[in-house]
Sequence to fold (426 residues):
Amino acid sequence: MSNLVIVGAQWGDEGKGKVIDVLSEEADVLVRFQGGHNAGHTVIADGQEFIFHLIPSGLLHEGKIGLIGNGVVIDPEALLEEMGRLSERGIDVQRAVKISDQAHVIFPYHKQLDLLEESVRAGRIGTSGRGIGPCYADKTARCGIRVADLCDAAAFAKKLRQNVTEKNRLFQALYGKPPVSYEELLERYTGYAKRLAPHVVNGVRFLREAIAQGKRLLFEGAQGTLLDVDHGTYPYVTSSNATAGGACTGSGVPPTAIDRVIGVVKAYTTRVGEGPFPTEFPPDLMERIRTKGKEFGATTGRARRCGWFDAVVARHAVWVNGCAAIAVTKLDVLDEMETIQICTSYRDGARPVEEFPSSADVLSRCQPVYESWPGWQADTGDAGRFEELPPEAQRYLKRLESLLGVPICLISTGSKREQAFKIGCW
Ligand code: IMP
Fold:
């Protein structure tokens, strides 16, 4: 038995989609456990690009089942649109997509609030504007609407009315905005419920039975450790637990059923949105790496901020996730660099900082301490084994392993499915 959790070990966009695609060949059930359609996992298979937002990306492989777990927040319109798009491209979503009845539902008022809150917030977060934060806020405030409610006409009508009344008070009194229409939402979402109902399951039971049948589960983290609401650079984070613990709370599988956690890192670092980022490149290098790495968001198209590999960040991620190994992606993006820097610790003024700071204010004061490594200035895209990488690239990766204290289990050197090799993941 081997149930695997894959999480981002930086600020998201680590290339998890590609790693999941490679590893899900050996899994039976793919599980999304947090986040929503703020995520965008890109997979390139047989020359075609697929972008997954809510649906587990491992479904590209035939015969797999994907569960959208209770920890996910679902915009039904976005989900149906994604199902339609994947179905047109030959993926049997009718059979393969299951939705937990405990997942929370995003409504247009969540999205509106997301945008309004950003517009008045003193320190912008730079959210994806998809209503993620306000939907999780309702979940925690215990007034959210779950998939089970959506599929129960009487319960839905009652809960929706309560929520719309409450939100309209807020829109009018606080933001001077017109009210949203209860009737319009009721009709629209009742239509979504009919279309989604055949996919809805008791997620806890579904996974318990899958485990009892000896099926292998792969949990697909979205975003990344540094965007985790508890362990990231709060408040510049998303509103869910993107760390491995979220795989249990967001799916109903107990910690004892998880065998292994793999953290995914890029060979450098990126982040989208606001917040401290100690190893951020100066403008010339930023442009060079952003262009080479095509560092633009798969969901919002925003340009990603880019920087050197930060071992303080990744060490923090290895610990809070309990990573047994890491997967390193986009090594090829560094192919032309003359020298490569690795941040090994920080300095806060004269004070050395080894531990990832709990406060974003402290982190924003921290200066990176770098060590320099010679670049390999050779193409890594065709390497099929570690030994086929240029010696400087091998040394760089070995150094990452020693700084993080865990082995590298997979290396990706390009966007194509073939441009990745495993060193033993299960
Ligand atoms: P939210 O999740 O839309 O509330 O956005 C909160 C923060 O998380 C913002 O900085 C976003 O840019 C960031 N974020 C959310 N989803 C992703 C993702 O999938 N990749 C990278 N950053 C993300």
In short: The CA atoms of residues 263 and 326 lie 5 Å apart. The domain at 104-196 is CATH 1.10.300.10 (Adenylosuccinate Synthetase, subunit A; domain 2). The pocket of inosinic acid is lined by residues 12-13, 38-40, 125-128, 130, 132-133, 222-223, 227, 236, 238-239, 272-273 (CB under 6 Å). The mean pLDDT is 95.
